[in-house]
Amino acid sequence: MTTPTTPRRSNSTSSINNKGPIFVTGADGEKGSAIVRSLLEMQLRHSHLNGFPVYAGLPDASTTEARELEVLGATLIELDPIVKPEAVVDALRGMTKLCLVVDPHGQQITRVNAAPYARAYIDAAKQAGVEHVIFLSPFSPCDPTTPPGTPTLDARRRPSFPLSPNTFRMQFSIIESHLQLIFSAEQITTIRYPGIVHQHLLKFFANYIATHSALPLPNHPHMTIESSDLGDIVRATCFVAFSPTSRHGGKEYKVTGPQLMTLEELGHRVSAGLRRDIRVDMVEMPSLREILLEVVPNEESVAYTLEMWGLQWRLNGRRFEVTRDLEALTGQSGKTLVEYFEDNRNAFSVPIQSVN
């Protein structure tokens, strides 16, 4: 682990080829830690990617998970931008790129502090001279998106319905607006992953499926949903991080799975992937909330999950699409839900205990 005041490389070379340190926020969470791991693993496999030291920002560098990142080659930066936002400037000095990961499934992010957390990083990144910010967001504007072949970042797009002040969607809207205010469009790349992330089905529903041979879903069987895989989100982020800023600056990408589906079809695909009959239990949102809290007793994490399900229902039929952005970025299409369940069949077979 290093302190935020440790000297790092000079800025003189990064303006030429954009090589230099990459700082990943939220490295204590699922997405942030996965991005850190992938950045390091890609450098081991591809020698031409050397020259991108990876720094992991997290509130506690003493955890087992943090130490694992350090062993892989990450430099751990212990800081809390909510408690001590002034320390973030020192932490980001000398960084070339900032992967701004705000993960509601972590222990730190809530419907109140997500925007202040991100603003501290954005303001500090500007002061520290960071050249490129890669922002990950689970939310998309509600009006039609740009064709995948020519993705652009349009600061004028706004949601077409009112936002509650106490929602994650509002927090992410504030973050995005502030980012566009502080940095020029050419310095920002946005990666969106709307809908349901495959890994969250494992996190929240593996125990229920293993115990009941059933999948609890919101009581809207014909609701269309988008989905994506965490591995695909991470892969897209790493490709952008290792590329010159000029290649992806000012653009946004939407990472989706290769198929749209209704909730009814989701149940069929779970059965196909697990190779056994899985009943679909359609339940109302309050009941679904109780089921989720039994597995993950974290109110904010469950609130975020239900917000994503509710948003999909509210926007049903208005903006759903399958993009080829991932294929354009990485040369590979995304993982299907059936493939995900096939790869993780054992995890849905044995009941697990609740996690914190």
Automatic annotation (TrEMBL):
Biased composition (Low complexity): 1-15
Entry similarity comment: Belongs to the NmrA-type oxidoreductase family.
Domain NmrA-like: 19-296
InterPro entries xrefs: NAD(P)-bd_dom_sf, NmrA-like, NmrA-like_oxidored
Organism, as annotated: Jimgerdemannia flammicorona
Protein name: NmrA-like domain-containing protein
Gene Ontology CC annotations of this record: nucleus
SUPFAM superfamilies: NAD(P)-binding Rossmann-fold domains
